[in-house]
Amino acid sequence: MDQHNLKKLRLAVLTSGLLTLLFGIALIISPPLYFFLHLSQNFTNTGRAISIFTILAGLVIIRIAVRFGDRTLNSWRALFVLISIVTSVFVYSGFIFFYPTLIVIAFNVLLLALLVMARRDFKYPSAPLLSPESIGALITIVFTISYGVGGVLLLGSQFSPHITNIINALYYTGEVVTTLGFGDILPLTAISRLFTISLVILGIASFFGAMVILVTPLIERRIGGIVNVMKRRQIEGLKDYTLVCGYSETLMKYLTRLKENGELVVFMEKDKNLSERLIDSGFIVIDERPDSEEALLEFNFSLAKQIIIGSMDDGQNILVAAALHQVPGQETFRDKVLVLIQNSSNVGRFGIFNYRLIDVSSVLGEYLLHLSK
User: Fold this and answer.
1) How far apart are alpha carbons 111 and 116 in whole angstroms?
2) Which end of the chain, N or C, is less packed with Cβ atoms under 10 Å?
């Protein structure tokens, strides 16, 4: 699947997440809508629990869609499983009788088929879908929900009507934590009221804070995308710049000297911590994978001074070289590409690209032999 089709697939995934989120929000705030969808006389607690689930599922799908461009195994697996569960819940709940929802179900089934077809494109090593902060936030959310559900079940007879099952306990917990307060379930005793107050405090103090931690990276990523667009437009008009695809400490002294001499050095780097270090050192950093063909197409290599593929991992270097080899106009920049090879046994694998090669281990060996004479 080419980059254009992958963009379309990402848009479809984002659309699925937004539809799921909007459906859950509309359902939980509108009992008449539930009545219309489910053909029931009452807006049951089961329906509200389902709507809370769809809201959380929609947020997670959107979160994965934002990182869809990474094309990791974890993102594909999580997305496939989550969309399958959401579709199954819609069908099981009876919402299939509502035509717009039926369209969403059909859309999700088609999306699952497209994901299966695109499975081979998600070939990069699996990376964590969530940062440590986000994992901590999820743990906080799970703890809050567990505390609420457990406490409600323990004190179930002290509410009106009585709460005797997990679905109703989950619904009441969601109602209290989100401060919606429908008023259909009331605490009758002092203990149940104190428990409800503690759940509200816990929800405001931790639950919403955790949600902010989960949502903030999405906003930062969007802002970072705008910054990258501005940087790319700036790079298009630059001349005699050095593009570095793959970080290596071996190169840093050379690149630092280039920068000190007034030359422009641009890194393509996804690692956040490493990017911050490079930016602090005065380098320009593009937040993209160096082996991303889409990102490489943004550069005008005919105006570049040199292009260095210099990762410490030869496997990564060959991926970058293969992506760069797909960029049109090879004759205008082929001689500017320099590949650092760490293992001499891998030299032959780079021959098909016709780029300049430096066998680091051979150069080091020759230097040591020269010193020993």
Assistant:
1) 9
2) C
Paired with 338 in beta bridges are 308, 356
Residue pLDDT, tens place only, 14-68: 888 888 887 777 766 655 555 555 444 444 555 566 667 778 788 888 878 777 6
Beta bridge partners of 266: 243, 284
Q: Distance between CA atoms of 326 and 307, rounded to whole angstroms?
A: 15
C-alpha dihedral over 152, 155, 157, 159, to 10 degrees? -60
Cα–Cα distance measured from residue 221 to residue 173, given in angstroms and rounded to the nearest whole number: 31
What domains appear along the chain, each with residue ranges and CATH number?
A: 1-128 (no CATH), 130-236 (1.10.287.70), 237-372 (3.40.50.720)
What's the rounded Cα separation, in Å, for the pair 78 and 273? 25
Say what the pTM is. 0.45
The CA angle 58-61-179, to the nearest 5 degrees, is: 30
Number of H helices, E strands in the chain: 15, 8
- What distances in angstroms separate CA 122 from CA 2, 77, 99, 117, one per listed residue? 12, 10, 33, 11
- Residue 296 buriedness (CB in 10 A; 0-12 / 13-18 / 19+): buried
Question: What residues does 159 pair with on adjacent strands?
Answer: 187
How many residues are given for the chain?
373
Angle value at C-alpha 21, between 83 and 1, nearest 5 degrees: 45
What are the contacts of 287-292 at 24+ separation with CB within 8 A? 287/224, 287/228, 288/228, 289/70, 290/245, 290/246, 290/316, 290/320, 290/323, 291/245, 291/316, 291/319, 291/320, 291/322, 291/323, 292/69, 292/268, 292/323
